[in-house]
Amino acid sequence: MRTRDTLLCSLSALCVAFAAAPAFALDAKVQGQVTAAIPLEVFKSTRDALRSGVKDYNAGDKVGAVKALEYAAEQGHALARWKLGRMYADGDGVPQNDLKAFQYFSRIADENADESPDSANARVVATAFVALGSYFLDGIPNTEVKANPVRARDMFQYAATYFGDPDAQYNLARMAIEGQGGPKDPRQAIRWLNLAAEKGHVQSQALLGHLLFSGEAGARQKARGLMWLTLARDSANPERDAWILELHDKDFAEAADTDRQAAMAYVDQQTRRRP
């Protein structure tokens, strides 16, 4: 568990540094709205605060949601911290602030890294590690969070291995293909993509399919590559995943009829295997 301990020590140090730094100024209008929100003492418990935060968020009351979630987050509730992290990362009801998002995700990773992979909170903790990996990949401008591909790869590695998170496996595969944060390892990338693809991760299915079809990461397996591309195309969002559709059409256009027919047989087999 040396890697885990190293990760957590680094995250703890960053959290301490950020806690000592002056708070970032909020937009005056939003700051006033937050000040006028429901007082914290109305919450009977952490669970009550979380329930209230989710209810307010779904009702469109983002100000009330933030206050309730902040209360739960201060009590150590991982899901409340995760939701606040996503809200700050997306600018959803609060001023967009990647540093605040990073801080919330760091607290989750720092305090919940040993969460059982089978627990109800496992997905929340895993996605926090994935978010941290993405921040370390690019860094956060004008903050102490600098681009650090090695640390990013470590974050993805932990979420991919301990939690089996498909997003982490996909990101880890891309870094292994490109040689970011470590040596290039196409064979290992194929392994990660296959694990994520079997879980229905559409982007992994598409990338795995293309690599198998083209032979860029080893021996060519055209029919199996077309199978994964077909499955990815069928589940892809046409607007968000346009690259998947283009990749599918390109490789299918280059394929021989025998490979296309074999791919359809593989698709049928793969579909039958699904629960």
Give a verbal description of the structure:
- The chain has 275 residues and is an all-alpha fold.
- It has a domain at 202-275.
- The chain contains 14 helices and no strands.
- It has helices at residues 2-20, 28-35, 46-58, 62-74, 78-90, 98-112, 122-138, 149-161, 166-178, 186-198, 202-214, 222-235, 242-254, 257-273.
- It is elongated, with a radius of gyration of 22 Å.
- The two termini are 34 Å apart.
- The model is unreliable at 13-40 (pLDDT under 50).
Strand fraction band? under 5%
Q: What is the total tally of β strands?
A: 0
Mean pLDDT: 87
Q: What's the gyration radius in Å?
A: 22 Å
CA distance, first residue to last residue: 34 Å
- The low-confidence parts are 13-40
The major pleated sheet works out as: none
Structural class: mainly alpha
- Sketch the topology as an H/E string, one letter per element: HHHHHHHHHHHHHH
Number of helices: 14
Helix fraction, binned, reads: over 70%
Draw up the topology in text.
Blueprint: H1 2-20, H2 28-35, H3 46-58, H4 62-74, H5 78-90, H6 98-112, H7 122-138, H8 149-161, H9 166-178, H10 186-198, H11 202-214, H12 222-235, H13 242-254, H14 257-273
Helix pairs in contact: 1-6, 3-4, 4-5, 5-6, 6-7, 7-8, 8-9, 9-10, 10-11, 11-12, 11-13, 12-13, 12-14
Short overview:
This protein has 275 residues and is an all-alpha fold.
List keywords for this structure.
275 residues, mainly alpha, signal
